[in-house]
Design brief:
The protein has about 290 residues and is α/β, with parallel strands linked by helices. It is built from 8 helices and 17 strands. It starts with a strand and ends with a strand.
């Protein structure tokens, strides 16, 4: 495969160039991208054919390959390194508590801060220190598409800005709350890095104490969100929309809590991703009346 070597940060910007062969995938190695070149165009180097990768699944967060499940063996790690050539391979053992702090082990290379680009947004983070919910990409895109300009949005578990920044780019006025100081630091950096400072009020602390006034929309991106529904409803009005994330379906319990708070509602439940054998990440879209 004939390729041109460019900085990784320029990869998105060259995809529409006439010399790019879009029938092939770019090869990423550290901070460089080897972009396939169409026949007849100049190229920097030729890469040999790649043998199929038959290892376990992984996620790329910037140049870091993140694996889940049981600890991979040395040969599994070596195969992943040969296939993807990441800067580092990180095993995510678990995520702890309300702060969603990852418990990780570096299996190869190095980690540290990276820039992860997704849907035109740049996220700065250290995946060994803060969680990145890459499996929620479709949900983030959906949020950016349904949020209305001028809405006041409460992002109760903002993390590093997964939903806050897409909401701000959609024209919302976002109140982003994050209890983990490390994640909050990256949230501030990502708000500035994506140019949405004027649209986002970010605060570090418990959203139970930080919610103020009323909101048109609530993003509750934590599996413990159903237990926090009564707190959110104190700041809701008829017409407010709540996006309540949970592990498994929680629609019946949510409907009962809404009735207790004196609201009517319509509830739509949708799957986001599989989280384990027979387990699914769900989002309940709740419209109050």
């Amino acid at each position: 495969m004939n390729t041109r070597i460019i900085p990784l940060e320029e990869l998105e910007s060259v995809q529409s160039r006439d010399w790019v062969d879009n029938t092939r995938r770019p090869f990423i190695c550290g901070e460089k991208a080897y972009v396939p070149v169409s026949e007849g165009h100049p190229f920097d180097c030729s890469l040999p054919p790649r043998r199929p990768y038959r290892g376990r699944g992984y996620q790329m967060i910037g140049p870091i390959a993140v694996v889940h499940g049981e600890r991979p063996g040395g040969e599994e790690v070596a195969e992943l390194v040969r296939w993807r050539r990441p800067r580092g391979v990180l095993w995510l053992k678990s995520v702890h508590g309300v702060t969603r702090t990852p418990n990780t082990e570096l299996l190869a290379g190095s980690c540290g801060e990276v820039i992860h680009r997704e849907n035109g947004i740049s996220f700065r983070l250290d995946p060994s220190r803060v969680m990145f919910a890459q499996g929620n990409r479709e949900e983030k895109t959906r949020m950016q598409g349904i949020i209305l300009k001028g809405e006041r949005v409460a992002d109760m578990y903002a993390g590093i800005g997964y939903f806050s920044i897409p909401a701000a780019l959609a024209g919302a006025r976002v109140h982003a709350m994050e209890i983990n100081p490390v994640a909050y630091s990256y949230l501030e950096q990502n708000i500035a890095g994506n140019g949405v400072e004027s649209c986002v009020l970010a605060e570090c602390g418990d959203c139970q104490r930080l919610l103020s006034g009323t909101y048109d929309r609530f993003i509750m991106g934590h599996f413990e969100s159903p237990a926090m529904l009564s707190v959110a409803l104190e700041h809701a009005i008829p017409g407010s929309v709540l996006h309540v994330h949970s592990s498994g379906k929680s629609a019946p319990d949510i409907a009962d809590r809404i009735i207790d708070a004196g609201f009517g509602s319509s509830v739509r439940c949708r799957r986001v991703k599989k989280t384990g054998p027979g387990q699914w990440h769900h989002v309940q879209d709740v419209t109050l009346s």
